[in-house]
Design goal:
The protein is an alpha/beta fold. It is built from nine helices and eleven strands.
């Protein structure tokens, strides 16, 4: 049995889902183990609310809390969008209370001012997004149902204006983060780490205890998530890895040898085994 009040918070693309075909078959045995033990599995992704709720139905995780659009949308276990103080007491970490049209207008203006060349999900059709992502048309349509952020196809490594772009977005109250395949623009003060802390605080209010958290991710936009949890798993990815972590001790951070859902299971098995032993030792000491 896992330690009581455990919560797993996981990225999706390249972590729980295979980078190439979006399969999660290799994660199913571990997922079934967690479900049998009543461990909440919180999806924390750049995906939209529509995409995540569809995946929750496929995995039998209906009714779980989740984080969408890199932290811009936080949905509690009651299905309601949550609000809360963002980083530095700024924008709410929860609902889509930012004006998406204003975000897109700021993005378009910045693109024109700096003569940048990138495309966005909002500016393309389902067919184009399907071609970019390998999703079917229905799933591509769900991916375009943005509420509080925008997705960019942009080759920053070939553009020497990346710094100017980031600064211009910051002046407009926006953040630029890199995912496994795409770049994402969202309101400043909202990220996966802020969202995780909001969910943990909500869990503590509802249950009276703070859960022990295990977080998993594979890309730069997962850095805040991995910093916010008690135990971190850096899943071997196919692109840039998460940035330097605040606490990179090997007893806290496990880096997997396998990618995708295989690595997801490997990382969870590592932390569950280690901390189950700690839990047993604590239990024995308390009964001596």
């Amino acid at each position: 049995m896992p330690p009581p009040d455990l919560m797993v918070v996981t990225d999706l693309d390249g972590t729980f889902l295979d980078h190439h075909d979006y399969s999660f078959d290799a994660a199913l045995p571990m997922l079934e183990h967690l479900r049998a033990d009543g461990v909440p599995v919180v999806f924390c992704s750049s995906k939209t609310r529509a995409e995540i709720t569809a995946l929750q139905r496929r995995t039998g995780l209906d009714g779980q809390a989740f984080v969408a659009e890199n932290g811009a949308i936080v949905v509690g276990p009651d299905g309601n969008v949550m609000t809360g103080a963002g980083a530095g007491g700024g924008a709410g970490a929860g609902p889509a209370n930012a004006d998406l049209e204003r975000l897109r207008a700021d993005l378009d203006r910045t693109r024109a001012d700096l003569d940048l060349h990138f495309a966005t999900f909002g500016g393309e059709t389902d067919e184009v997004v399907a071609a970019w992502t390998g999703l079917d048309l229905g799933a591509a349509g769900d991916a375009r149902q943005r509420e509080a952020s925008e997705v960019l196809l942009w080759h920053a490594e070939d553009d020497d204006r990346a710094g100017a772009f980031r600064a211009a977005l910051a002046a407009a109250g926006l953040d630029l983060v890199r995912g496994g395949r795409f770049w994402h623009v969202l309101p400043a003060g909202r990220d996966k780490g802020t969202a995780v802390r909001l969910l943990v605080a909500d869990h503590e209010r509802r249950t009276g205890t703070a859960p022990r958290t295990i977080g998993l991710g594979d890309g730069p936009n997962d850095t805040a998530l991995l910093d916010a949890v008690d135990l971190a798993v850096v899943v071997r990815g196919h692109g840039p890895a998460p940035g330097p972590l605040d606490d990179d001790r090997p007893e806290r951070v496990h880096r997997t040898t396998a990618p995708g859902p295989q690595g997801w299971s490997e990382g969870l098995e590592h932390h569950l085994e280690h901390h189950l032993e700690q839990h047993r030792e604590q239990h024995l000491r308390s009964h001596r």
